[in-house]
Structure formats: structure tokens, C-alpha cells
Amino acid sequence: MSIAALLGSPIKRREDPRLITGQATYVDDIKLHGMLHMAVLRSPYGHARITRLATAEARKLPGVMAVYTAEDMKGAVGNVAIAVPLGKIAEGMGVHGPLAEGKVRFYGDPVAVVIADDPYTARDALDLIDIDYEPLPAAIDVEKAMEPGAPILYEEFDSNVAFSMHPPSDEMDQVFEKTRADGGVVIKQRLVNQRLAPVSMETRGVVAEYRKSDKSLTVWSSSQIPHLLRNILSALVGLPQHQVRVIVPEVGGGFGSKLNIYPEEMVAAFASMRLGRPVKWIESRSENLAVTVHGRAQVDHIEVAATREGRVTGLKVHGISDLGAYSQLFTDVIMIAFGFPVSCGSYDIPVHLSADIVFTNKAPTDAYRGAGRPEATYAVERAMDLVARELGRDPVEIRRLNFIQPDQFPYKSSAGAVYDTGDYEAALDKALQIADYKSLRAEQTQKRSEGKLMGIGVSSYIEICGFGPKGSAPVGLYESARVRVEQSGTVMVYTGSSPHGQGEETTFAQIVAEEFSIPVDSVMILHGDTDSTPEGRGTYGSRTTAVGGSAVFNAVQRLKEKMKLIASHMLEASASDVTLEDGKFSVAGSPQKSVAFAEIAAAANLSNTLAPGIEPGLETTVFFEPEACVFPFGTHICVVEVDKDTGETQLKRFIAVDDCGRQLNPMIVQGQVHGGIAQGVGQALWEGVEYGDDGQLLTASLMDYAMPYASEFPMFELDHTVTLTPVNPLGVKGVGEAGTIGSTPAVAAAVADALGVAHIDMPFRPEKLWKIIHQQQ
After folding, report:
1. Are both 641 and 692 inside the same structural domain?
2. 488, 529, 594: which is closest to 250 by C-alpha?
3. Where are the alpha helices (DSSP H) in 533-648?
4. DSSP string over 97-143
5. Residues 105 and 85 in one domain
């Protein structure tokens, strides 16, 4: 493969050999001299007062070094961080310390910790803690939790509603009335995005080591945000930032759930500082299902108006976000900040948005792959299907009629977002072509005549990602890169981004190798250590390549210009005449006059041949903060068959055409889409966190929480279109969350189409569908 063909080539991930051969290091692989182990006592109740908490017997167990409760940590550790506290949260509602004090508010709420010589002793000591509870009624259903008389989580407030946004709707109401008067249709529907557990392959874990000799704290964590974790944790434990180091080794998946500062990280740091020894905590799978943040958990009441021709004249969305018991880093803004901006979807339609965010006696929710955008997309895509059904039209026709057109970009939606670029019809047409849509509909007609339930669903999605524009958050959402060319010609890249499966080490190396015209093996990517990498905001929101990759690209451009100056001196030519190709700097028109990349690197570092005024060395640090977000898009088509006798849904085909701008590595892009589709389909067909009325977690193990199997899926039929963005120098948009955003509404539409009903709430489990089928019969 020629060097010039690096970008856009499906190069295999350089990370994979160490990951699949067991040579990678995860948090649980960290072993330090004198290391202690932590176990957490958790509430068995969804809502209760703590009436007794005695730890004396647990402290006596041989091997136990300490037992800590909220009382022990008062004044020593701050509250769990909240990025943008809205409404009553800014007044203290939902704000919490690392351990429950006086009251527990969800099943799994941490109450006390034991620090011991080994994990077995620590867990045994939990049984010796004497604790009594007074159970309280629990607020479980988010809509009932809003009603007068509902159990209250925070007695100092008169309601569980933390924040409401209900702007006047007079103008939209008039639109709806006019649509009715003109003979159009108005449709209402309640939609549920059920609560999901992220269930990353690697559970959470932390090792904290405080050294009294230099008063430094080193924390190893399975995290998506090393620098933010360092910054926030240092404030919470009262240490200057330069005395806190966070190291993120390999991360076995995160999906947004590791985009947080959790109580366990705070307590482990506190314990190590108190005891002067390293402390390790590794989350069990049952803890992971119970207490690691959940996702989705949103109810939407939508109302859509459309003309008889299918033109949508208005969409109302009232979103109700189930926060769970506490606010975590982004809990309260997932729906409003990330979902609402794309509530119009790919369509040139007016939208009216209102919201309530509500506390319930369940685990906190926060970012989960897509974070607000799957919920928003589900609402607008279901609206399009409902309009099509009401009018007796093909859902493809309704979408095409309402699309934003290419000449309307940049497009400011009625939700306030400014879309960068798009050609939604091109993605739709390619997906229809791959599916052979007309033949599919003919096949469906034939199968229905045979009594078979075949359904076809279409979803044309858009997402907002590449966060974030200047001024859009309390801190700058920039990304960073420090690039250094060694004397040998090897290029070292230190990035503030921190991957957990995105293939960053490969993609970033491709960027550098192509721009420097050197082999990709000559580039090393380093990340995840706050002592060696420049400040960055981490990996989430499909921003790694768009923001972090752009920082790398800009740093390389800066060094390339310096290398051209050095080459011009060595070649006795003007710098403007120097070109770089195939690893050589040469003079335009005189290719025989050249000097190799490695020779320039050696000259820069040895410095004895540099021209006057040129500083030695080849190293630079660049920060990139985009002026705007990017808006990837695409169309997904799903084909299902529902078994009349069992209600089981079989996924027969899945077609996805995604546009993430310029594709730097198509193989990695396809891998991201594959994983996203699996999770989106998992939500539609199987997954769902369930609680009893008393707050007991019913899906407490993988025996109860239904994860998708690879065998449940057909081979995905993937393709793409390319619409570049001007927002960053690479022209790239994000793709990490696209699969979860586009797939779920496509499956929902297909299942509803198969059964011939307007709507069914997810998940579409066999029992639910069987009942609908037999009610129809």
C-alpha cells in the first residue's frame, strides 16, 4: 500500500493483537505492594431510612483495616460532581456525597465500605455491619412520581420534579388548528424509551495510591475522561491538580457509563490517603447492573400535524426524563442538551419542545451510547410513521416530502440547532437501492397472503456530535495533541483523547503517517496518562476524530512547515518550493534534490546544521476547539418476520447507509456501526431494566437482563455516502453512536408494520407480541 493511500484505507486496528492475545493491561491487572481491597455495603431497599448503622464488629475481623461511613467522610470529600445543575438541582436536590447518609434512595445505594487485606475478607466483613432500615414507599413510575401524593425522595422539596420547561405553545396550537380546519390529520402518541443498562464487557474499577512522601495521589481508573477525572477528583479530596495523576489503562468498553466520577473512585482515594496504602475496588457484574448509570429512561408525549398530502406542519414533544435517585455528571441535561437539538430530525418542520426532569427511586441515569439523540430520533421517526399510516402512504414518501434539501445548508432548525451539511435523500436512495425496496414490498404482500407476518421499517436519522462549540459548556470542550518527531524519525503523538474501543491508535496514526508521508508503523500514539498527555476532555459524544483527530492534524501541519524550513536550508532552496512526498522533502521541479524525512528529524534534534533563527527540536502542542458541532446522518432499513405461534421476532435483513463525512478508516467505521446496530436492536427487541413497585431491582443478573447474542443478527448490509463538513480540517463527522440512533426506530417500524398496528412500546418481547396477535385474531 502506498503511503499516499493511508487515509481512507481499511487498515487493521493496531490495538487488536495485544487485546485479543491477553497482553493488554486493565485496571484489575494493576497489582501494587501492600495493596488493600475495598468492598461496598449497598442498600437492599429502593427507599428507606437508615435507623441503625454500627460497624464495630466489622472492624474487629482480622484483616480489616478500616470501615467507613458517610460520617467518617464528612468534610474530607466533596459531593459527586454535576456539570450543569438545572432547576432545583442547583438548590441541592439530587446532590449527594459518596455514601448515603440517613436515607437510601435506590437499590444498591452505597452505605458503607470495608477496606481489608484481601477482597474476600472485605466482603465477609460487610455481613458484620449492623444496619437497620425503615422501608419507605418508593417512586418508581416516572409519570406517577410527578403526581401530588407521590413518595418524595427529598423532603425539603415539595415535588420529585427537579426542572420543568414549558414554553408558550400558542403559535404551534394555531398551526394545529389550521391543519385540522384544512382537512389535515393530528395524531397523538405516548412513546417510551425504556431504561437500559450499558453492560460494558469490563466492569468499572479503580486503584488509588497515595504516597505520603510527596503527598501525591495516583489513580488508575477504567474511565473515558482521564483529565476531567483528575481535575474533579483533586478538588473533591482537597489536593492540587499537580499532585493527582490519573492513569487510564485499557478500557473494556464504556458506552458513556464511564463518563462519570463515581462514589467508589472518591472513597478509594479517601481510604488510600487515610491509610497510606494502595486501595483497589473492582465492580462485580451484579453491582454493574444495579449501580453503574443506566441510560434512556424517557417518556415522550408527541403530537404531530400533517396535511392530507403528507407535509408535516408541526410536531409537539413533551419529554419526561427519569433521572433516577441522584444527579450524576450529565444526568439532568441528557434530554435537553443532547436530544432536543435534533428533535426535528432530518426534516424541515416546526417543533415545540417541553420537558420535565424527575427523580425516582432507581439508579441514576446518564449518558448511554447516543445520549438523548436516540430518544429524540425515536420520537420524530415514529411521528413520520404515524403520519404515513394515518394517510395510507408509504413511510418513504412521507420522509422524502419533508426532508431538508441540500441547498438549505447551513440549516437552522426550529429546535435551534445549526446543521452543517447534509444530503438526506441520497442516503435514503442508496439504502432503498441496496434493500431493493419495491421487491421487498412485493414479497411482503405475497407473505401476507400466505399468513406470514413480515414487516419493513425505515428510519432516516440525524445526530449532533463532535462536541463542543466554544461557550456551550461550563468548561472548554477542546481536544489536544502534542506531536514530537524523534531523532530517528519516529513520531510520538500524545493525545488528550482516551479510547475505549474506537480504534484511535490506528486512525490517529493514519492521519500522521499520511500528512508526514511516512509508514504508519513509524507513528506511536500515547494516551490515558494525565502526567504525560496534554489536557483533554476525553472520549464521548462521537467526538474523538472530529475534535481530537483535528488537533493531531493541526499539530502535524505546524511541524511540517518547520521541517520544510529546515529542508530548504539543507537544499539551498526557498521553503515555498519544498514539497513532501514518499517520505522525502524535495525541490519542486528538481526531484533529484531531496532529503529524507529522517534526515530532517536528525538535523532538527542535533541542531548543528540548523539555519540561524530556527530552534532545535521538532515538537508542538495544539488545542482544537470546534466552532460548531457536526451532524452525521443516514438511513436504516429493517426487515423482520414475527412468528404467529410464539410472538418471536426474527431479524431477516438490516441495511444501514451512514454519512459520517470523510471516512479515514472504513473498516473501523463499519465496526462502530456494527456495534451500534446491535445495541439499538437490543433495545428494541430484548433489553430493559425492571424494578418492582417497592424499588427492588428485578433484572439483577444477566439471567434476567436480556443481552443480544451475535447469533440473533443477520449479516448487516452496510454502505455510506460522503458529505464533508467545513467544521474541522479533516471534513469528518462522528460515527460511534450512529448505529444506536438509526436502528431502534427502524426495528420499531418494522415490528409495527408486521403486526399492522400503529405503535407498540419497546421491548418487543415474544409474550407482548403474542398477546397482540391473538387479540387481533
Report:
1. yes
2. 529
3. 550-571, 597-606
4. -SS--SEE-STT-EEEEEEESSHHHHHHHHTT-EEEEEE-----STT
5. yes
Cα-based torsion angle of the residue sequence 177, 181, 184, 189 in order, rounded to the nearest 10 degrees: 30
Considering the domain architecture, whether residues 387 and 518 belong to the same structural domain is answered as no
Query: Under a CB-based contact definition with an 8 Å cutoff, are residues 513 and 520 in contact?
Result: yes
DSSP run (H or E) holding 92: none
Cell numbers found for residue 161: 420534579
* Burial (Cβ within 10 Å: 0-12, 13-18, ≥19) of residue 258: buried
**Helix pair angle (504-516, 550-571), 10° resolution:** 30
Percent with pLDDT over 70 in the chain: 99
Q: Is the peptide bond before 468 cis (omega within 30 degrees of 0)?
A: yes
The CATH number for 564's domain is: 3.30.365.10
Q: Are both 418 and 352 inside the same structural domain?
A: yes
Task: Report if residue 191 sits inside a domain.
Answer: no
277 and 299: one domain? Answer: no
Residue 707: other Cβ atoms inside 10 A? 12
Does residue 470 have a pLDDT over 80? Answer: no
| In a shared domain, residues 644 and 737 | yes
166 belongs to a structural domain:
no
Separation of alpha carbons 713 and 651, rounded Å: 6
Say whether pLDDT at 776 is over 90: no
Q: What are phi and psi of 773, to 5 degrees?
A: -60, -45
CATH number at residue 273: 3.90.1170.50
Strands of the 64-69 sheet, one edge to the other: 64-69, 110-116, 36-42, 279-282, 205-211, 216-221, 244-247
744 burial via Cβ count (<10 Å: 0-12, 13-18, 19+): buried
> How does pLDDT run across 20-49, given as a tens digit for each residue?
999 999 999 999 999 999 999 999 999 999
In a domain, 164, yes or no: no
Co-location of 240 and 321 in the same domain: no
* Last residue of one domain, picked from the residues 589, 624, 659: 624
- Residue 1 has a pLDDT of 38
Cell of residue 648, nine digits = 418471536
Examine residue 96 and state whether it is found in any structural domain, yes or no.
yes
Handedness of CA 20, 26, 28, 31 (dihedral sign): positive
Residue 467 pLDDT > 60, yes or no?
Answer: yes
Q: What is the pLDDT of residues 523-556, one digit of tens each?
A: 999 999 999 999 999 999 999 999 999 999 999 9
Q: Phi, psi at residue 227, to the nearest 5°?
A: -75, -40
Torsions phi, psi for 448 (to 5 deg): -65, -35
3-state secondary structure 372-436: CHHHHHHHHHHHHHHHHHHHCCCHHHHHHHHECCHHHCCEECCCCCEECCCCHHHHHHHHHHHHC
Last residue of a domain, one of 270, 291, 312: 291
The domain containing residue 279 runs over which residues?
31-136+201-253+258-291
Number of domains in the chain: 3
